[in-house]
Amino acid sequence: MSVFVLLVVLVLAVLLVVALAALAAAAVVVAGRGAPAAPPVPAWRRAVRRVDTISLVAAATGIVGALVAATVLPTAFVSATATPGLLAALGPVLAGAVYVLTLALGELTWPRPQGQRREAFLVRRPALAPAGHLAARLVLVWLALGAVVVLVAGLIAEPDGRSVGTSTVDSGGQLLSSSAAGPFPGWPYGVPVLVGMVALVLLHLWVRHLITRRPAVAEVAPEEDVRVRALSATRVAQGVQLALAVTIVGLLLVAAGALARVDLTVVAWGAGLLAAGIAVTAVVGTVRPVRP
């Protein structure tokens, strides 16, 4: 399949999503015209809905970015860098960055206080908007684990950094046989990927700072405003931890495939099981309900 066909398919998919969203919105408007007037929605509930809308838009853009990374980068741009396939390895981080930047743009759309008379609560705000404990901790855990995976893979890789090998020697130290397999996430892959992971974590911290500095929501009590900000920060952390986890899972699965081909079956199974555990934990951290 050519790159042009892939791009056409992705564009059509995006247009389909936009069209369905427009039809759904139109249906809601038409249905609401003949319905009796609904009771007024509390201001904090409207703020929560705004956070949900921003998160849905960001998730959609992140998914589109992930689809592009999964289909185009491993094919059309496999040789775009000195290390073949490096952009594909960075795909989850790039998709995570798209998600976070979309959330950042959403934060800039919050209305500022208007009118000649304005009220404000004197509340001390932290440098970073507090996120849910699970999502915030998983961001740090995945970053640390990613560093460990990159370090171990870099140390056991062959000198070319793109393969892993084994050798057999006799009692006198004479080489009897050797074998190598790749691709393998050695230093040429691991270092740029780790730099990308660190950059994504820093980007998510910046957005959480942006959340804590945005204007207070009008007609919302201080404690409710804090909960709305925490909801926004948690959504940022949830997406980032998922992107980091997918990155690590990709490294482990690639490593497991190469290890299996050089008959390091036990180590390969260990890497595969670790990848499965990370994937399950990341999914739980992503779909766990967040209560504002």
UniProtKB/TrEMBL annotation:
Transmembrane segments: 6-32, 53-73, 85-108, 134-157, 186-207, 239-260, 266-287
Lineage, top ranks: Bacteria, Bacillati, Actinomycetota, Actinomycetes, Micrococcales
Keywords: Membrane, Transmembrane, Transmembrane helix
Protein name: Uncharacterized protein
